[in-house]
Amino acid sequence: MDALSSLLDGFAVALTVQNIGLALLGCFLGTIIGALPGLGPSNGVAILIPLAFTLGLPATPALILLTSVYYGAMYGGRISSILLNIPGDEPALMTTLDGYPMAKKGQAGEALALSGIASFVGAFFATIGLVFLAPQLVKVALLFGPAEYFALFTLAFATLGGVASRNQAKAAIAAALGLGIAMIGVDHQTGVPRFTFGEVHLYDGIDFLVAIVGLFALSEVFLFLEHKGQGKAGAADMKIGRVTAPWSMIKGSIGTMLRGTGLGFVAGVLPGAGASLGSFIAYTFEKRLSDKDKTFGKGDPRGVAAPEAGNNAAAGGALIPMLALGVPGSGTTAVLLAMLLTLNITPGPLLFQSNPDVVWGLIAALFIANVMLLLLNIPMVSLFVRVLLVPPRYLMPTVAMISFVGIYGISGSTFDLMVMVGFGVLGYVLRKLDVPLVPVILGVLLGNEMEKNLRRALTISDGDWSILLGSPLAIGLWVFAIVGFLAPLIIGRYFRPKIADEAKGEGADPD
Amino acid sequence: MSDRVLGVVCILLAALFIWQATQIETGFIVDPLGPGAFPIIIGVVLALGGLYAIVRPDAAPDWPPPGRLLEIAFAVAVMLAYALFLPEFGFVLSTAVAASLLGWRLGSRPLAAALAGIVIAVGIYVIFHLVLGLSLARGPWGF
């Protein structure tokens, strides 16, 4: 019961006025970010990181703010899914299937209330899972040497490419691009500059925040420019009524929520999957299991509860590998990792030993944030509905300008802003070409760490490459990596959301 | 076709990357692997990925018509100019102009766009600088 006493300490950390205030702010901003189409969790968190950093927040409060945003976005995505039939972010895609039909039947209030409760259930149990599973994973991770870490990083890229993208080659291209970008700058071990082409600004390497904000946020602006005038002006019929769900409806969905939570949690813990896959699996499974009267897709409340429980549970699950191993499993957790690295905190097993206040304070804050989100998202949901009416022609310039403010605040350098615009263009082209952005980010973030571990391993073995397969643990990780990369080819694309394919055409904001 | 271009670009990039990696000058302290080996592995992965994209390309994406590409190029130009002029003209003026131009191209009427630009610039200035104390670019007149 170590975990429980640590958690109690965590509550002591989290229950300060400042931290509760930040959690509330994060929940509020997160719900808005999730609800606005075109602004999803990874995007929103990416824009806010430089701000949290330049405001000089210490690690724990900064992390509380941003993970609250992350949890909040998972709640917020459902609002526009249900009311407008436009997913507010990618994980909320499956919620449109039954949420919008429910709204058309005049049950918008019920759908919003039920999905809010499902979100709460998913996030709550996933956070409990985080409390118990993360310390176990840490125990395993303490056995890792450099060779195992190198294999683990490879595993993260491999499963990301295998499960989460449509074309393994493009995922490999994306990973290589990201890793290549990370190589720019002075080599940490020998002190020689690499790939700098004599440009002094590049000696420090490219700040990953610059890359992330450019790739995610600015590319979104360009996509909007391309598609302006084609989007449907939604908000046609937004009568919500009372936001409550009858007890019978909730009772009928309890099993659904719990199943969705379990599946979503597993999907979240697996590297490379994330919340979109969580909500997809939860919905399809529930449909197979319970759709006896063919009501799914026509406004069945269980079709709203399952994906919402699934994506919120996945969001909590995805934090586990990020915190315990330092290897994020999804886009947004990659962005959160970027923030930790910016604050000079290296996640991984040592984090639990050297900074338990950060970890447990964060986890306690997640419980608090989850309660706040339930309160914000059921009684006050109409407030967020109004935000949906802000047209993109005002929203997008604001997003772009806030991105610039954040990056300029960190470095005060015009050069970084130029590089960021460059990344925006790169992000736009990659999204058009269907090259996933998450491996690029992961590469930029993990590149140096991955190389360091490879070189350490080979220093230990004095240049003998067989050390990479030197332990059963390492071999297991390699096997996993290969299976994760190739299995989707062999067993077909069973796990891949079909409907997501269409909507994702341009690489909707990853979770 | 787009994928083939992507593949060729990847292979060229990989070649450049590997060539650069072999050119890294090492000093006295060298570990068994050295600073060039991992970049070479990355280059090989990039080249293989590019090769696959050439051999088995996906269907081409819907590229926007030239007019829209011009719009995007214009937005890029606005952003680059913004980055350049930020230290010269200060935060509020640069941001108001840049946000107005972007808003105008995103479909606002010119007057509404200009107003929105001013509101965005002043709003960010008030919230982030005056309330939160973030340092923004100072122009000749201090804001």
From TrEMBL, chain A:
Listed InterPro entries: DUF112_TM
Pfam family, one: TctA
Transmembrane segments: 12-35, 47-71, 111-134, 140-162, 169-186, 206-225, 263-285, 334-352, 358-389, 401-430, 465-491
Domain of life the protein comes from: Bacteria
Entry keyword set: Membrane, Transmembrane, Transmembrane helix
Residue ranges of domain DUF112 in the record: 21-442
Descriptive protein name: Putative tricarboxylic transport membrane protein
From TrEMBL, chain B:
Alphabetized UniProt keyword annotations: Membrane, Transmembrane, Transmembrane helix
InterPro entries documented for this protein: DUF1468
Pfam families according to UniProt: TctB
Keyword Transferase: no
The DUF1468 domain, residue ranges: 5-136
Protein's name in the database: Putative tricarboxylic transport membrane protein
Organism lineage: Bacteria, Pseudomonadati, Pseudomonadota, Alphaproteobacteria, Hyphomicrobiales
Positions of transmembrane segments: 36-55, 67-85, 114-137
